[in-house]
Amino acid sequence: MAKSILQNDKECYLCRRMYNLRTTRGLEEHHILFGRGRRELSEQYGLKVWLCHNHHNEPPLGVHYNPCSRRVLERAAQFAFDNLHGPGSFAKVFGEEI
């Protein structure tokens, strides 16, 4: 199980980023890229974050329901991945850019 390349602290990534709040209760691990075998790659490369339940799996804010929130995470994942592995690395591994 790889460590997240997007965050060091176990707190809701979106609560911190959007509201500067430190939410540490009821956290759920979210693999930023999922489906078509990408969940396993997310795990391997640390493309995952902690989210509170509301930001993870509850409409309307949860990333599984809200395409805007999902895009925020996908773009952050691509940026972090390319910074760590070099420009264009994300597209080579995942077959696309976000």
Description:
Helix content is 46%, strand content 10%. It has 98 residues and is mostly helical. The chain has one domain (13-94). Strands 1-2 form a two-stranded antiparallel sheet. It is globular. The protein starts with 12 loop residues before the first helix and ends with a helix.
Question: Could you give a quick summary of the protein structure above?
Answer:
The protein has five helices and two strands, in the order αβαβααα. It has 98 residues and is mainly α.
- Series of secondary-structure elements, N-terminal to C-terminal: HEHEHHH
* Amount of beta strand: 5-15%
What is the CA–CA distance across the termini? 24 Å
Give the uncertain stretches in residue-range form.
none
Topology, number of strands = 2
Summed up, the helix count is: 5
Query: What is the radius of gyration?
Result: 13 Å
Shape: globular
Mean pLDDT: 95
